[in-house]
Amino acid sequence: MLSQERTESDARDAALLAGVAGGDERAFAELYDRYSSILFGLLLRILHSRAEAEDVLQEVCLQIWQQARAFDAARGRPFTWLVTLARSRAIDRLRAVDSRDRAALRAAEEPPPEAAAGSADEEAARSEEGEIVRAALAELPEEQRQALLLAYLGGMSQSEIAAARGVPLGTVKTRTRAGLKKLGELLRNRLGQYAV
Amino acid sequence: MRHEDYRELLALEAAGAVDPSEVRALDAHLSTCAECRAELDSLRDAAAALARTVAPVAPPAHLRARVLEQVKALKASTTGAGAPRPVAGDARPAAATNVAEEARRLLRRLSLWQLFGARPSLGFGAAAAALVIAALAALSLSLWGRTHRLSAEVARLTERLGSSEGELARERGQLARVREVNEFLTAPGARVMSLAGTKTAPRASARVAYDQATGRVLLLAYDLPPAPAGKAYQLWFIAGGRPPLPGGVFKTDAGGRASLSDRLPPDAPGLNAFAVTLEDERGVQSAEGEMYLLGSDS
Lengths: 196, 298
What we know:
The complex is a heterodimer. By secondary structure, chain A is mainly α. Helix content of chain A is about 80%, strand content about 0%. The relative contact order of chain A is 0.10. Chain B has an eight-stranded antiparallel β-sheet with strand order 5-4-7-8-1-2-3-6. Chain B is built from nine helices and eight strands.
């Protein structure tokens, strides 16, 4: 059931992106309305600053407008394209921040947040797909989950994670890699829709 | 690195955890390996799922309005750039339209990634290369949201279609430059500031794009009077409360236009203004000459 909904949703989003690529402002507005909250939440999570997140969201939107023609529906899901783009810009903004401020942001990152029952995460939990992802994440061995979350949502480099956890760099890389591959497998089993 | 080594990196790339030192090598490999590209796409799907574990937060309402306005403005300027100029009895306007259309069609077939990673094996002929130049020029220039000035720039580039082999080399140089400009302008953190002409040169104007992360600066100036012999214009970096730091020197072309590629001074936090003065053509350490352009971030 969910996998069919996702296929339809993907097709709709791909059509919107194609519209945007053709200069369709209404398609762009619809895409914004559909995904701005998810992207903004992600940016806030990575940047820990409302002002920065607002800035980056604007940049991301303009980049989507400019580069929608680069999206290839045969190669991946629209959601992935949007999220990857947003995350990249957030990380670059994070790295441009003064190193003192960055240390403060790192401090805010420890201990790594569990996808737990805080009121902030309740909204995410309500989304069915979000619930499935969180459940799959919970099945990863803890050190793999931490490494993955710190890298992807925490924007920490592998060296920073290694230093924070007191483990060798190679170990962090292995954990991150294994964690993502396992997550991919679990999601494919439960949602049945991921490419490959 | 062998193919297997690159494969090992894919999950790290999808998780956003590849070492900066390895990114370039990985990108180069990916541009040639479809198998790795496919696997990376699938890993990216898994990584993007993590975004679903974060609580959505509605952005402020005014942001939506602003973004839609900016999109409208960009669209208007891009359309202006590609539209035919009405010149009586001249066959060129129609050709310019067709070229812009061709360029757009070409761009739609190729992803920007492929364009930026273009190898000779893609088989670009002279005409196709010129089309790509026109398309990338339109793409880059649209980011500045200009109107008639840039449409002249694009028309000038598109008019070079049907050029001989001799001009192709120059066009390849232009392609590299346009590509560089485009990469720079789309870099995260790149900011753009407008400079206005002072009383000395009220018609002059300029835009400065700068990126604190990479230190790159690009200045495009318009309608500056030609510098007298022995003199040149100089860019200044101004951080609040401190003496301006010197930037590069430049001269204008016959049309009063100039461009300068420069670097931000490494020790200039709080950079919030730029100025252009007329100085000795070798450049000076502290500004003495008349100020022609000034802009600040306020």
